[in-house]
Amino acid sequence: MEILRSIPEMKAWSRQVRQAGRTLGFVPTMGALHDGHLSLVKRSRADCDRTVVSIFVNPKQFGPGEDLDTYPANWDADRNLLEPLGVDAVFLPTRGDMYPHGFQTTVTVEDLTGHLCGESRPGFFEGVTTVVLKLFLIVQPDTAYFGEKDRQQLQVIRRMVEDLNVNVSVVGLPIVRDADGLAKSSRNQYLNPAQREIALSLSRALEQARQRIEAGETDAARLRREIEEKFALHAETRIDYVSVCNADTFEELDVIQDNVLVALAVFVGKARLIDNCLIERVPCKEPC
Amino acid sequence: MEILRSIPEMKAWSRQVRQAGRTLGFVPTMGALHDGHLSLVKRSRADCDRTVVSIFVNPKQFGPGEDLDTYPANWDADRNLLEPLGVDAVFLPTRGDMYPHGFQTTVTVEDLTGHLCGESRPGFFEGVTTVVLKLFLIVQPDTAYFGEKDRQQLQVIRRMVEDLNVNVSVVGLPIVRDADGLAKSSRNQYLNPAQREIALSLSRALEQARQRIEAGETDAARLRREIEEKFALHAETRIDYVSVCNADTFEELDVIQDNVLVALAVFVGKARLIDNCLIERVPCKEPC
Fold first, then answer.
1. B12 burial type by CB count under 10 A (0-12 exposed, 13-18 middle, 19+ buried)
2. Does B87 reside within a domain?
3. A205 and A122 together in one domain
4. What's the main place this protein lives (chains A, B) (predicted)?
5. pLDDT tens digits for A30-66?
6. Which of A14, A94, A95, A107 to mutate to test the interface with B (most CBs of B within 10 A)?
């Protein structure tokens, strides 16, 4: 497994892969890897001749007062997870190389980012799209893999790629959960055992919402209120948003119809957790 | 000379060039070609194995009330200029292909665009950087050529390319002028003979500014005032800006020092004309 620490090294490695006629899969991460990331890596390994994983905690996607300084980092653990999977290269750029003195360019996706995490974290998606475009142009993969836990991020990146004619295929893969339903997240490390128990309220609320919609509920406001009431029971939680929205545009719905996304962002202690469930109009019996 | 009218055609043509191991030079234009454009094409032909010229009047770089609808277009004339120069392909995308329904992504370069044309034409540079990045990612050239008449544009594009790690070398080439000094511009077509005579005031003002600076003038405000007074003599002119600024940052100077850029934007009739002169600290005897 090659460890590439500079942009020129990464570009040269990628050029060699292309010149050898190999396909390249790419999994961009902020480290603190878990089974969600690893599912992306495994899929890339299955799809592509070569796989590169980047680890870069991107300061531009953290707002003032967010957890940039405490975001979990453990390179040795990450390396021990990636190596057995047959990852070919890990790209570990520095902040100074990614954002040198005088850096002043931003990539913005407008409409899709006006809702959900974009509304509650101003500047977050600009940080995401800017760094992801940079990584795409440095790594030059054929395919890049993202998790559906960050479903809004996935769609924003798809939109950017289409709008800017970026030569990368974007693949989204399902949320990976613990056995009890908690969505895998690097930020789960912030939870103590009691908080972790409370955090199960997210996936449970989504599962109940799914059942209510499949049973015929069409009143989005009532559904949001029901979800909010569940969290009101826990003193240690603070709702960031509860959304019942159009799954393509993220616009809040009045009447539930077509494909609906139920999406949550809830603080449990200091951990801001997100989870979501896409519900097709035709009831499907898979769990969220 | 291949005429490529769709994005997939352009991408496929470019892929073939790369796979054949050829270098590709690119001259993005809005058509209405003149000797300034042709100097870029000739340089690309000299530098690169293959040369592609794009012609696309980019609506995103025109503001309300600007001349999008009247911008000169003459494909037959453009073709007759390009063909004898040995251009290999011309890319002629449609507006609908470049900005399909739902398009919502913008590339912004912040600091450099807060001055000169960026200040007087809000949204202009976002339109430029967005379309140029798209064109770069579609055409995938090794080298792209831009004229120094649009010196701010050139530096903004250089900054974008560096910040986003775009794999394109950007080359800027000197302003091409008519024998009497008028900078070549597609918008010169808007001038009647009397206006064309008045338009010479731009290059003359720059030449006088150069002489004053080389003779030791250090007071930027006095120099701006002197230039403004020249245009006050002509009823048919309206100054957009007169700038005596730092040539790297475009910040207005109080005291002239190091490399100074004198830049003008002046309406002559309905034509908004720009011109500029870079003056090195060490006096050089070349004309502007």
1. exposed
2. yes
3. no
4. cytoplasm
5. 999 999 999 999 999 999 999 999 999 999 999 999 9
6. A107
